[in-house]
Amino acid sequence: xxxxxxxxxxxxxxxxxxxxxxxxxxxxxxxxxxxxxxxxxxxxxxxxxxxxxxxxxxxxxxxxxxxxxxxxxxxxxxxxxxxxxxxxxxxxxxxxxxxxxxxxxxxxxxxxxxxxxxxxxxxxxxxxxxxxxxxxxxxxxxxxxxxxxxxxxxxxxxxxxxxxxxxxxxxxxxxxxxxxxxxxxxxxxxxxxxxxxxxxxxxxxxxxxxxxxxxxxxxxxxxxxxxxxxxxxxxxxxxxxxxxxxxxxxxxxxxxxxxxxxxxxxxxxxxxxxxxxxxxxxxxxxxxxxxxxxxxxxxxxxxxxxxxxxxxxxxxxxxxxxxxxxxxxxxxxxxxxxxxxxxxxxxxxxxxxxxxxxxxxxxxxxxxxxxxxxxxxxxxxxxxxxxxxxxxxxxxxxxxxxxxxxxxxxxxxxxxxxxxxxxxxxxxxxxxxxxxxxxxxxxxxxxxxxxxxxxxxxxxxxxxxxxxxxxxxxxxxxxxxxxxxxxxxxxxxx
Length: 494
Known about the structure:
By secondary structure, the protein is mainly β. Helices cover 1% and strands 59% of the residues. It has one helix spanning 407-410, and strands at 7-9, 30-33, 43-50, 53-61, 67-75, 80-86, 91-101, 104-113, 118-126, 131-136, 142-150, 156-163, 173-179, 185-191, 196-205, 208-216, 226-232, 238-245, 250-258, 261-275, 278-289, 294-299, 310-317, 322-328, 331-337, 343-349, 356-367, 370-379, 388-394, 418-421, 428-433, 439-447, 452-461, 464-467, 474-482, 485-493. β24 and β25 form a beta hairpin. It starts with 6 loop residues before the first strand and ends with a strand.
């Protein structure tokens, strides 16, 4: 962080935006698809990109009455190409996973036949979305698959929960099923848990695996929620584990392993406010080393007024940042952190309608400055049946516009009476507003590759002068974020 002497505070400014979020203009890809004949809940859950084509997966209640899934195919610009509704009489699908291998698109999850238990399953499609093969792995148990990944030897492994029977009273334990490269079952395994297990994610860790999620005692509910992360060997046996607790519970537990660090996403509870013994929550990123020592914990945002105000659905790591994405009632959000786990910024995504209902389920990087996401868009007043597939693209700073460097136009600084001068500049820049209001928050300067160049904390400002004498010539993004304030602008340094 830079010395306070680098910043002179003379004149105050303030920008207040609806919900503290940005309404984006001129979208490159910001498309909502009403995938009839699905009755609502057309929630996009996963996406992959193959040969400059986007494939997305969503769930829905089809007109036949079956709960099943949708495969949707589009160009990188969001132009629809094809849609497949996988609707087999007598089959109900819970399919959270989408992946590919060669010319094959693969959906994985769980299936129930004739209301007798849930079993793991794999469904194979060609790239025209014609089904090739449906594989079910009979278990005579009640299994819910929540995550899966390719193994280092070319096989596949799925992770979820298991109960002895669909209507049984036993708490779910953790479950793994290991497949070879042709999807033949090699083994499956139950990891017995003392509490109700809610698995979230699995990834490779050397020859073994990292799994994570949360557990709780259903009899006590919220106060017993805890995060867990486990290192398993190649046979699914436990090598080491980490449990993270909090006095009033912490949930979710989605993890990702990147080199020598493990990132774990959760939601921390507000101990002062409860609704029916359920606490309001806000997100937390926990950074661990590979011995499960906690390196950093970062909590951000407000607890909000809804029981499920925050739901982080996943993490993405590149060589510069960690990204968390998900749902902040009633909007989608993307938050960026340093690789050390320190908070950088958050951007919310919502339509301009009064009761926008939006969420981000999955985010992937196509390159260092191009990210594609999937989720849903809807209208809170119309209810969940109004939710449709939402496909979008942003850059590494969360921008969703045709000219991702032209932030001044995007965020409407002229309309907000904000002046940033001189621009271009040699050694300093001034931020000034015609509104005599307090500006408090953080200023960050990024280069166009997303590297953080300068970081300044502001505690009530009149006029803000930032010294740039050690900054190399080039184009930069000036980003400000306060409790209810957000703007960005392009800055040219000569």
